[in-house]
Amino acid sequence: MEKMLQETAVGTNKDLAASTGPESAALAAGGIAALLAGACCVVPFVLVSIGVGGAWLANLQLLEPYRPVFIGIAIVALGFAGKRIYRPAQACAPGTACAVPEVRRGYKIGFWMVAAVFLVMLTYPYYASLLY
Amino acid sequence: MLRNAFLIALLAFASSAVLAEVKTVTLSVPGMYCEMCPATVKKAISRVHGVSKIEASFKTKEAGLSVDEDQTNVDALTKATANAGYPSTPKQ
Predict the structure, then answer these.
(1) Is the ipTM above a cut-off of 0.85?
(2) Which residues contact residue B10 at a Cβ distance below 8 angstroms, ignoring those fewer than 6 apart?
(3) Any idea what DSSP says for residue B48?
(4) A121 interfaces chain B, CB cutoff of 8 Å
(5) DSSP 8-state class, residue A21
(6) CB of A28 closer than 8 Å to CB of A118
(7) CA separation (Å) from A16 to A63, A95, A119, B1?
(8) I need a surface site. Which of A4, A30, B22, B26 has the fewest CB within 10 A?
């Protein structure tokens, strides 16, 4: 019985590599929205710092007026992802992606990475002056 | 003694020549509309060889810098800022 359970867990793990739960989708959406929120300003700085340049960077400025929108999307996506990722494991249906411990840990790491990127993009007006 | 005087004269000449090559340039960068922009502009300019003492201002939308004219020119500077997304023009 225990062996069977293990096999099921392994099987689920394999399937997970290809499948994505709503948590992944929410994290991806949050990450993209966070990057777009900083596209006008932080992204060019990072690109120029690593040596990627081009006049096209000026186009990113067009995204600046939509910054509040992207910030809102990122907050909603991160909130949704956080709620799902940090809910008790019992709430997951057995056998689904969210019930596997490794996946849960991966989601948590992903969540905090996206949250960190979001914070960097959100707070740039406050730390920008330290960079020049 | 005479040789020393000659060396001193040579050194004085050489150092004045070095000083003469360094010029202060002010670039007008009207596109610096956000708090982060001067940081990006400064970074872009600092990648040009022969540039030192860069000061980018968000308030005045200008970037001041010292440039060694033997190593670079104003064209390279405006090109560098344009490549970071901020076209600039030299200010007289």
Answers:
(1) no
(2) none
(3) S
(4) no
(5) -
(6) no
(7) 35, 11, 29, 85
(8) A4
